[in-house]
Amino acid sequence: DIHMTQSPSSLSASVGDTVTITCRASQSIGSHFNWYQQKPGRAPKLLIYAASTLETGVPSRFSGSGSGTDFTLTISSLQPEDAATYYCQQSYTTPGFGPGTRVDIK
Amino acid sequence: QVQLVQSGAEVKKPGASVKVSCKVSGYSLGQLSIHWLRQPPGEGLEWMGGFDPEHDEKIYADNFQGRVTLIDDTSTDTAYMEMSSLRSEDTAVYYCAAAREYELLNNYYYAMDVWGQGTTVTVYS
Description:
heterodimer; A: mainly beta; 4-stranded antiparallel sheet; 0% helix; B: 4-stranded antiparallel sheet
C-alpha cells in the first residue's frame, strides 16, 4: 500500500498570507494526486487533480505542484472562507488519503 | 450535472448490519464510478471500496473485504453500501463519491469530483 503523509498537521495564518501544505507519498505516483478541502460538517470538495490542475470553479489563489513523491498545495492571499481541513489523495492505486492539515484563520 | 443524495442517519447495535443508499441524478449510475468512504468522528477519510472501470469490477479495501458489499441498482440509479457485523469502531460518517476520469496530454487521471452529503452511522449498545 502507498502511505501518504502531510505536514503540518495544523496551521494558523492571517488573511492575506500565503500558506503551503506538503504531502509525501511512500513511493512514486507520478501526477496521480489530488487535493480536497473539507469544512466542518460538510463533504470534501475537490480542489486540484493531476497534482496541479485546478478543478472548475476553484479560486485561482489555490495552486498545486509536484510529481513523483512530493507535492505541495499553496493558498495565496488566504481568505476567511479557506478555513478548513485539506486532504491529499493518491489515485495511482486504490485511493489513499493523507491525514489532513487543518487551516485556521488568526 | 451529477448529484448524489444519501439516505438518512442510522443507529445500530453491535453485530447488526446497515445499508446506506446513494441516489444518483443528472447521470445514469452505469455511467459513473461510485466509491464509498468513511470518516470517524474527528478523524480523516478512509476509502472503503468502489468501481474500477479499468477492470470493470468492484474493488474493496483490505480492511473491509468480506464485511462490506457494494450494490448497484441501475433500474433506480441507486448505489448501496451494506456493512455487516457492525462494531462501535464503525461509528462514522459514510460518503459516496463519483470518480471522474480526466484526460491530460494523453494521460488519464481520476479524482472524486462529486460527493454525497454523508450519512451518519452510529453503533452502540
